[in-house]
Amino acid sequence: MEKIPLTRAGYTALNDELKTLKSVERPAVIRAIAEAREHGDLSENAEYHAAREKQGFIETRIKELEAIIGRADVFDPEKLSGTIKFGATIKLVDEDTDEEKVYQIVGEPEADIAAGKLNIASPLARALIGKDEGDSVEVRTPGGEKSYEVLSIEYK
C-alpha cells in the first residue's frame, strides 16, 4: 500500500475528525434512527430515511479516515529546511500581475486551495519542488501558462 504524506497538523485534524465522528456523530444518528423507528411505518417516514442516509455518510467517512490515517506518512515541517519540499510554506509573486500568494505544500487529504493548502500532486506544487528563493517557475494550468517567482520559503 502506498503511503499518504501528511503534515503533523493535517494528521491531527483528520484524527480529530475521526474521533468526533465515532464519539459524537455516530451515536447521535443511531439515536435519531431509534426515535424515527418509534414513529411507526418506516416506508413513509422521512426522518428515518434521512437519518439512515446520514448514517451512511458518517460510516463512509469513518472508513475513509481510518484508511488515510492507517497509511499516513507524517512529516513535521518545522524539522525541515532548504529548497522547497513537502510541508514548505512558500510566498510567490505572479510575474504577470504582481499578485502575491502564500501556499503550504500538503498531502491530498488536507489540501484546500482557498486556505492556502496546495496539494503535493498539483501542477504548481510539482513545479515548485526543489526550487529556491529567487527562482522562477513556469506552470501549465488549465487557464494557460503562469509564471511565478519564489519570494520566500518557510518551514513552520
From TrEMBL:
Gene Ontology MF: a single term: translation elongation factor activity
Keyword Protein biosynthesis: yes
Keywords on record: DNA-binding, Elongation factor, Protein biosynthesis, Transcription, Transcription regulation
PROSITE patterns reported in the protein's UniProt record: GREAB_1
Transcription elongation factor GreA/GreB C-terminal domain location: 82-155
Statement: the UniProt record of this protein carries the keyword Transcription regulation: yes
Gene3D superfamilies linked: Transcription elongation factor, GreA/GreB, C-terminal domain (3.10.50.30), Transcription elongation factor, GreA/GreB, N-terminal domain (1.10.287.180)
Origin superkingdom: Bacteria
Stretches assigned to the Transcription elongation factor GreA/GreB N-terminal domain: 4-74
SUPFAM superfamilies, A to Z: FKBP-like, GreA transcript cleavage protein, N-terminal domain
Role, per record: Necessary for efficient RNA polymerase transcription elongation past template-encoded arresting sites. The arresting sites in DNA have the property of trapping a certain fraction of elongating RNA polymerases that pass through, resulting in locked ternary complexes. Cleavage of the nascent transcript by cleavage factors such as GreA or GreB allows the resumption of elongation from the new 3'terminus. GreA releases sequences of 2 to 3 nucleotides.
Protein family per UniProt: Belongs to the GreA/GreB family.
Protein name per the record: Transcription elongation factor GreA
The organism of origin for this protein: Psychromarinibacter halotolerans
